[in-house]
Amino acid sequence: MSSLTVYANEPVTRGKVVVHTSIGPLDIELWPKEAPMACRNFVQLCLEGYYDGCIFHRVIRDFMAQTGDPTGTGKGGESVFGSKFKDEFHSRLRFTHRGLIAMASEGPDTNGSQFFVTLDRCEWLDRKHTIFGKVTGNSLYNLHRFNELEVDAADRPEFAPRIERCEVLLEPFDDIEAAGEAEAAGQPRALLSSHDVLDDPRLSKKSAIEPSADVPDTAPRPAGGASDAQDARAADAATDEAAAEAAFEARMLEQMHAKRQ
């Protein structure tokens, strides 16, 4: 499979963050539909400056570079949800190329604040770590600099790069900006539960694991009247989804224009 085919099979990204590091910026595009909790966690921590100053405490050549722990030990960090959150896997998001952004964890459903960027393909991580974004554009070339670092036996760089600041260019969630404004005004941040996150109308309603084409469809089909009603409901749902998508695209353009002014 060619690299073009791999990229074409990936879902459309929505939302963009620039992570400015001491070895150059990383332009990151997000998948909030496919990994809503991971993306919300990442964006909100970026807006709060949580990652500012974090070092890349673990770097393995041609594999990955890990960061997101304010203690710099690889044992710290907290999510915005106040506890560890669940993994989010999707059949169209796989570790097939470099530049993927994924949650670092100690095991199933133990995601916090730490994340890593892949420096090469690593398919053995599929369904073990949540992929929620990817590095894009010319900033992909900055990934080569991680491979040039001298590391010790514990994969810790001798001179560890660090995150200087995170710049959210396009926010994929409406309410995060309001939460940031409330915090600036001295009000406590209101955290959303996983139910609030998953009720976002822009999030994918499809199963994260798509059924295989090799599995025969043995489910009984409804009679004609029920089928017609289902078709009508499906058409209405498609219309609503298209309207929501159009509104979302318009809001993203407004944010981009505002950033440029």
TrEMBL record:
One of its GO terms (biological process) is protein folding. Residues 20-168 form the PPIase cyclophilin-type domain. It is found in: Nucleus. Residues 203-243 are annotated as: Disordered. Transmembrane segments: none annotated. Its EC number is 5.2.1.8. It catalyses: [protein]-peptidylproline (omega=180) = [protein]-peptidylproline (omega=0). It holds the Pfam family Pro_isomerase. It comes from the Eukaryota. Its main location: nucleus. The keyword Phosphoprotein does not apply. InterPro entries: Cyclophilin-like_dom_sf, Cyclophilin-type_PPIase_CS, Cyclophilin-type_PPIase_dom, Cyclophilin_A-like. CDD domains: cyclophilin_CeCYP16-like. GO terms for cellular component: catalytic step 2 spliceosome. GO terms for molecular function: peptidyl-prolyl cis-trans isomerase activity. Keywords: Isomerase, Nucleus, Rotamase. PPIases accelerate the folding of proteins. It catalyzes the cis-trans isomerization of proline imidic peptide bonds in oligopeptides. Belongs to the cyclophilin-type PPIase family. This is Peptidyl-prolyl cis-trans isomerase. It comes from Chrysochromulina tobinii.
